[in-house]
Write a structure and sequence with these properties.
By secondary structure, this protein is an alpha/beta fold. It has 3 domains: 47 residues, no CATH class; 73 residues, 2-Layer Sandwich (Enolase-like, domain 1), CATH 3.30.390.100; 142 residues, Rossmann fold. The strands form 3 sheets. It has a 6-stranded mixed sheet. It has a 3-stranded antiparallel sheet with strand order 3-4-5. Helix 2 crosses helix 4. The longest helix is centred in the middle third of the chain and has 15 residues. The radius of gyration is 19 Å and the shape is globular.
Length: 296
């Protein structure tokens, strides 16, 4: 396992203003007030093979203490959760397994719940509930000091070249032309196999295993396929988790092949909530967000 060095704030991360930093081996982006809990969590990882969703819940449980949910929006494209400290998180809205007109059985009671209660929805059997859980996780991450990151184009950061074999999991339309312009071999794996030029995840397994760069949509956290995708990689030089659903918390991916988290921070909560409620997606939301890439 990689040894990671962290600068963490001494006082509680939910308070704003200047902070004094100290260095702590073994954790990244975590406040001292709950670093002990994270250390215990990491010890557990050595004996138990836990999913990314389980890691996220365990990692963010300490920061959820004392925080409640102020607002929940489940839009057609995205789900948003705002905490009572003002932090807001997004996640892709998954379909529901419900056969009735009620898609979320807890509708009408989500706002006002504890943040831990909604965070644990990441492990729900209902995909729509997992979207709420992921949005809550991202709202909790937004309560933390931002990790060191860069705002450059992710293709430039990863330095994709003609010699690379790139496996893209999820159809990132705006990214595809620029990726192909590098001269690399690009294979696109997509659940909606009706999309031209794509392969199903099942058919794309050999290509995933052979890739030198993997670009994986953060929505795989909701679908529960991320762990299997990461396990299917052999020797990639770079693995990027991409999109607004991505959990911008390095410890969640500690010990995995992930090398970059390319996600977003909400900078205008009111605008984002309005767009989510009206069915907007990334192309409309992006002007109200800061996109950054964390290099692990």
């Amino acid at each position: 396992m990689r040894r990671l060095i962290l600068r963490t704030p001494v006082r509680d991360i939910r308070h704003h203003g200047s902070v004094r930093w100290h260095r702590l081996a073994g954790t990244v982006g975590l406040p001292r007030s709950w670093s002990v809990g994270i250390s215990m969590w990491r010890e557990e990882q050595q004996t138990v093979n836990r999913s990314i969703r389980e890691r996220a819940i365990d990692c963010l449980r300490p920061v959820s203490k004392g925080l409640s949910v102020a607002d929940v929006r489940i839009g057609v494209g995205f789900t948003s959760v705002r905490l009572d400290n003002g932090s807001i998180g997004l996640a892709w809205t998954a379909g529901s397994v419900s056969e009735s007109c009620t898609r979320e059985n807890r509708a009408g009671t989500l706002a006002g719940s504890t943040s831990l209660d909604l965070l644990e929805m990441l492990e729900s059997s209902n995909p729509l509930s997992r979207s709420v859980g992921l949005a809550t996780a991202n709202a909790l991450v937004a309560s933390l000091p931002r990790p060191r990151a860069t705002t450059g184009d992710v293709l430039d950061i990863v330095r994709i070249k003609a010699a690379d074999r790139v496996a893209m999991v999820g159809y990132f339309g705006p990214l595809i032309p620029a990726t192909r312009m590098t001269g690399c071999k690009l294979d696109i794996l997509e659940l909606k196999t009706s999309t031209p030029g794509t392969l199903s995840p099942e058919d794309g397994r050999p290509l995933l295993a052979a890739c030198s760069v993997a670009i994986i949509t953060g929505t795989t956290i909701v679908t529960g396929t991320l762990d299997e995708l990461l396990a299917g990689l052999v020797e990639p030089r770079a693995v990027v988790i991409l999109g607004p659903s991505s959990i911008m918390c390095p410890p969640v991916f500690d010990g995995t092949p992930v090398t970059h988290i390319a996600g977003a921070w909400v900078k205008d909560a009111a605008a984002v909530e309005r767009i989510v409620s009206e069915g907007g997606g990334t192309m409309i939301l992006k002007k109200h967000m800061d996109f950054e890439t964390i290099c692990l």
